[in-house]
Amino acid sequence: MKTYLDCIPCFFQQALQTTRMVTSDERKARKVLDEVGAMIKGFSLDSPPPENGRLMYKKIAEITGNPDPFKEIKRKYTDAALKLYPFLKQIVVQSEDKLFAAIKLAIAGNVIDFGAKSSLMKSPGEFDLEKEAKEAVKKNFVLLDYENFKESLLASSEILYIGDNAGETVFDRVLIEELGRPVIYVVRGKPIINDATYEDAIEADIHRVARILSSGVDAPGTILARCSDEFRKEYDSAQLVISKGQGNYETLSAEERPIFYLLKVKCPVIAQEMGVEVGGMVLKQAKWD
Amino acid sequence: MKTYLDCIPCFFQQALQTTRMVTSDERKARKVLDEVGAMIKGFSLDSPPPENGRLMYKKIAEITGNPDPFKEIKRKYTDAALKLYPFLKQIVVQSEDKLFAAIKLAIAGNVIDFGAKSSLMKSPGEFDLEKEAKEAVKKNFVLLDYENFKESLLASSEILYIGDNAGETVFDRVLIEELGRPVIYVVRGKPIINDATYEDAIEADIHRVARILSSGVDAPGTILARCSDEFRKEYDSAQLVISKGQGNYETLSAEERPIFYLLKVKCPVIAQEMGVEVGGMVLKQAKWD
What we know:
2 domains, alpha/beta, seven-stranded mixed beta sheet, homodimer
């Protein structure tokens, strides 16, 4: 998916929010906005947003001197989600269709996203995970390819599960436990926004239910050209890929392979791209032969 | 009031929206964002947002070749408000406190603002003026200096009323008709966003109830240093100033004179500055001896 011009005001919002998380020095924040402003000319609209976001977050790290501004936030939401884990399991156990309930919960966890935000000037959002989980279970999907998903799942001996945010990882674990197949869980290669890295996945106990693999990427998405050979090998031979969240969708939406995108629609650009409303839950399959 | 860093993402949003109103050529929109990006470094945070906005809108006009992108929009909302005029008058007539009702309606009209917007990617907003008017009448103020306003009004032989947006002008007319004093109605010197100019005020029949005066300013606010001598003379000797909307507040908030700011709070920056919530109705007096 390409970068829309509409992504650009949002980049500035993210830049400001991220900088303020690591410093109260407004001069640094000013410098970040000045520098990001000067970078706009160099952004390629043919690239997906995470490719341009990658450049921007590098610049922020350079100016603030902090390569992992969301470290505390990531731990906080992983801890909160771990506390919620028994509750999530209980929801699944009590559901008639356990797999379907687990998918909904995995999407509920996708709310923990500090990249896609639309309200200005709010301090970093407080996500109410329990409320989100309860609502997701009752809610209908805006796009749903569940029958095909089940079919693909049955036909696959192993699943490549590309994770998104820290904390969401725990919700992913609940789904992984319902897949009934060996899973490779993919994390980012370096800290980027609040996306899950190897360390974050370990904290969420993902290693108990899956093999954790880094994509090698330092962007908030899966930019295939930047992925490690090890990841590419797994990806190219995967029978079924689960792609979580907007950033992975943005970078993998043009792929014609057995991919299912699981996400909560959090921004108007993705909503327009998918032809749905902001806030919707999506389980959508890629086109492939 | 100074420009907050939070204004900068909003500037980009406004730039994109404005450009798309006059052209479907996304290359032009791209050029606008590139150029505005490069301008950020030159923005003064010590200036109020309309001073920086002025520079940005000049750049947009230069790139698109259109100095008045909101011309149609302004006419549309003036026409819609004129149709609503009898209904507004009816509300006032049926109210126990007619002045208070007219103030609320004048603030309801302040919703017609194409500068302050917070949702990305929406096509230019459709404002439901009738709904806004009905809601305003029932709603309470978040800041209200009504007793002092009435006192100042009684003590003044003439009022300087600084207007804001086209269409809102008609709502202002309803208030002017309840003030019971001669009024000078101030408009912008040149088209800027959807702010009312002399022509727009005439279309709203303001000349039937007030003397229309241009501030001489080409910014979405009343930047005193850029105002005409004629305006400054009236302003400096005014016994009572009514300042409508955010842009006028942003440029006049530091003034220690008998000014009453009437506005609907439309953005988080103004909300923070005033210590209230977005959406609130404000009738606030300046500090003066």
